[in-house]
Amino acid sequence: AMDGEPLLEKRYLEEENRKEKRFVNRFGEESKKLWNISGPAIFTYIAQYSLGALTQTFAGQLGEIELAAVSVENSVIAGLVFGAMLGMGSALETLCGQAFGAGQIQMLGIYMQRSWVILFATACLLLPIYLFAPPILIFFGESDDISRAAGKFALYMIPQLFAYAANFPIQKFLQAQRKVMAMAWISAIVLVLHTFFSWLLILKLEWGLIGAAITLNTSWWLISIFQMIYIFYVNSDGAWSGFTWLAFRDLYGFIKLSLASAVML
């Protein structure tokens, strides 16, 4: 019996070792899968956030009032709009995820168009924030000089508002299909272009804040346009089957879900 005990113990330890190895291997595989999706997605968000941060850095070389104008517009006005738009676009995460899981691939394109309709309408509703930025900023205690400069820059940045409306539904559409690598590559290319043209227009050609606005607006629109080209012409795996009137159906339910997503975010 005594001889049998070490043998049993040995077997038990071997079995535990095997289980441990299996767990480590499985953990490694799952982590790799997770990082294959989340890694490029994280990079995409960092690259897109860096667009505004880079513009701010270049504006800082123009002068204090220019830096203040860009940072206030970036953090307060664009920041508020970015949060609202991203939140409302997040309704697609649920819907596209469900449709993709259920194999209803064509619904992804319809949901994306429906989200475009709602986000472009939302952009129009948010437009007064850009148009009346100086009095809004003064009301919240910003100085007159900075409020006026930020308000002027906000007017230049109106195209960015509509680029957000185009961009967020596309990103959720691609994320649902795990096509995050395409998003990461596009964001990386645009970030490089943005850095070069920021230097060229803001500092070299001395276009100042107008140069900053042109570069930042163009960069955000390039991200949307490149992603659309990828979906329409390169690779949509049947998820995109063209523009359809179905985008205008059941908008009320979609608006409710979008608002709920925005509030949660």
UniProtKB/TrEMBL annotation:
Q: Does the keyword Chloroplast apply?
A: no
Mark the transmembrane ranges.
116-141, 153-170, 182-202, 208-233
**Recorded GO MF terms:** antiporter activity; xenobiotic transmembrane transporter activity
User: What are the entry keywords?
Assistant: Membrane, Transmembrane, Transmembrane helix
| InterPro entries per the UniProt record, alphabetical | MATE_fam
**What are the annotated GO cellular component locations?**
membrane
Q: Which domain of life is it from?
A: Eukaryota
The family this protein is said to belong to = Belongs to the multi antimicrobial extrusion (MATE) (TC 2.A.66.1) family.
- State what protein this is by name: Protein DETOXIFICATION
Native species = Genlisea aurea
